[in-house]
Input
Amino acid sequence: MQTQPNHRLKVILAWSLALALAWWSLHPLPLGLRLCCHLDKLAHFGSFALVGGLWFRTFASLFWRPLGLGYGVLLEIGQAWVPGRTFDHYDLAANLAGIALAWGYAHRYSLEVA
Output
């Protein structure tokens, strides 16, 4: 593992964003907060693409990539037990699509750097 200050900052940021996404996903929504017209799917896609992209760029090992998919699945399933939240197949698809985009980006970038 690299010990450069820049890498440490990326590790702290990657973990912080992953934990923030978990907190937001597993926290009850404030009353009245609902995104209309399935805009929440864009929020799912974008947030998982952002967190996944940073995660996969920070932790380059292929070991972390399947864990990213599991993370997206577990957070969505976990919402079934949170008051005011529900499990939604379309949200799960948006989570996985965002992670897949990040995975593809990280793979492409790692080929360009090598």
In short: The radius of gyration is 15 Å. The mean pLDDT is 83. The chain is about 70% helix and 0% strand.
